[in-house]
Design goal:
This protein is of the alpha+beta class. Helix content is 34%, strand content 17%. It has eleven helices and 23 strands. The strands form eight sheets. A five-stranded mixed sheet has the order 16-23-20-21-18. Strands 4-10-7-8 form a four-stranded antiparallel sheet, covered by helices on one side. Helix 5 crosses helix 7 (348-357).
Length: 457
């Protein structure tokens, strides 16, 4: 796909924008809005179980308004907040604080809802087409302007007085309409291909989990006789496998966090210390932080040897139940337990595969009044289907080989997504700055996805 350029260009004087077609204007946002740019209430409402959706940054983080990520406020609060701002169809929201600062989304509904203060609102006047302005604000050029002008407190943010003065290219309204039509069509095609790759990645993850679970609970030979394990979520296991408690095969210990108030526990430390966030990695190869020998001697920590499996104990989110193989000697915090295997009975990699396969069951084992939690006793009491060391080794090799195939496929899918996202970004920027002339473009009846995939690469 190729397009000609416009004949004449003029320099905007803005390094992040460059030249635009000579007959275009370049306008600050404040000159193309119907009302001054505003935001939601700067107070925390009382959230209720059901009511008027209340949208904040997390609900627009993907560039669309996801009402499933909204909370709810009362009709009375909605009416009160609506005196300042009430959402309308075709309003544009931009995240103005936090990690997703700069992300924009268009209101495409007439339902009642309201917004919180992290969102700024752009309501276009007749000078500007909302869908064009949306794409202009998504462009690399505008996003670079946001980055150049935001400031940092506890997090990155951009003030509305700054935002309203950021400039966008402004072609005649007829051209805005054509550019918006062109980008709606082209980005929808790219987004559909990205979604295909994302579904493939999710499928690979499911297959990966199923492969591991089947290998460590059923073995590699489907012809061997099976027996009931007596464990509901485990089902049948090979007849010649045993089913000991994990505590009979390994030490299960907890860690702690040395006092942050004692600088002698942390300053110039050289002993690796691992926090629960590290469990998001399948294997742990580096420390979260380092503690001192004084902390090791005086606090409730001990050095866990490499080859142990760390399990997340606490959290409503993803961490509880995660299992990661420790590839360094390290201490751990109180939100993690270390399962240190007796290598005469169970191999580290087999233990890791098994505990990794138990993610959902282990989350169900969690207990606690205010926060779901596991503990060392519960982990020690887990039953583990146990083949011989020789069979464990074969299972480890088999799974490693198959996982390498899945990893290759996932890496290719991730690479394809990155290429298509880059193409999407480049296409938006080229169209809204007039680097390509789409005035003569017409929407085809259909276009093959394979052609677009080749263009993306």
């Amino acid at each position: 796909m190729s397009f000609s350029s416009y004949g004449d260009y003029k320099d905007t004087g803005l390094p992040e924008l460059g030249a635009v077609p000579a007959h275009w204007d370049v306008s600050p946002l404040k000159h193309i809005v119907e009302d001054p740019i505003t935001d939601g209430p700067h107070e925390t409402p009382e959230f209720i179980a059901d009511g008027i959706p209340f949208v904040s940054a997390e609900a627009v983080s993907t560039g669309e308004i996801n009402f499933s990520k909204s909370r709810f406020i009362s009709q009375a609060d909605h009416d009160r907040y609506s005196k300042k701002y009430k959402p309308h169809r075709n309003d544009i929201f931009m995240v103005k604080s936090g990690a997703t600062t700069g992300v924009v989304a268009l209101v495409s509904t007439d339902q009642d809802f309201n917004i919180w203060s992290p969102l700024a609102v752009v309501r276009c006047s007749r000078l500007a087409l909302p869908r064009y302005v949306l794409q202009a604000m998504r462009s690399r050029n505008f996003q670079e302007s946001v980055r150049l002008n935001w400031n940092y407190g506890t997090q990155q943010n951009i003030g509305m007085s700054v935002l309203e003065n950021l400039r966008i290219p402004l072609p005649p309204i007829v051209e805005q309409t054509q550019i918006a039509r062109f980008l709606d069509y082209q980005t929808a095609r790219i987004d559909a291909l990205i979604e295909q790759q994302q579904r493939l990645i999710e499928l690979l993850k499911e297959k990966r989990q199923a492969l591991i679970s089947n290998a460590v609970t059923k073995g590699l030979d489907p012809s061997v006789p099976m027996k009931n394990s007596g464990v509901e979520w485990l089902g049948k296991i090979p007849f010649n496998w045993t089913l000991p408690k994990l505590g009979h095969l390994a030490r299960v210990i907890n860690g702690s966090t040395p006092s942050r108030d004692n600088n002698e526990y942390w300053s110039n430390g050289d002993i690796p210390w691992v926090a629960s966030g590290a469990l998001n990695d399948y294997q742990i190869n580096s420390a979260s932080e380092f503690i001192t020998k004084k902390a090791l001697a005086e606090c409730s920590v001990e050095i866990v040897p490499r080859g142990a499996v760390l399990v997340g104990l606490v959290g409503q989110g993803k961490t509880r139940g995660l299992a990661a193989l420790l590839n360094i000697d390290a201490t751990i915090n109180q939100n993690v337990c270390a399962v240190i295997p007796n290598l005469q009975k169970v191999l580290s990699e087999f233990l890791h595969l098994y505990l990794h396969s138990l993610y959902e069951p282990m989350r169900d084992f969690g207990r606690g009044a205010n926060q779901a939690a596991l503990n060392c006793e519960l982990v020690s009491a887990l039953r583990i289907p146990l083949p011989t060391l020789e069979e464990q080794s074969k299972i480890i090799q088999f799974v490693a080989h198959r996982l390498s195939v899945f990893q290759t496929l996932e890496a290719h899918a991730q690479s394809s997504i990155a290429l298509m996202q880059e193409r999407r970004s480049a296409l938006i920027s080229s169209a809204v700055t007039g680097k390509i002339d789409v005035r003569g473009w017409q929407s085809p009846v259909s276009a093959p996805s394979r052609e677009l995939e080749q263009e993306a690469v």
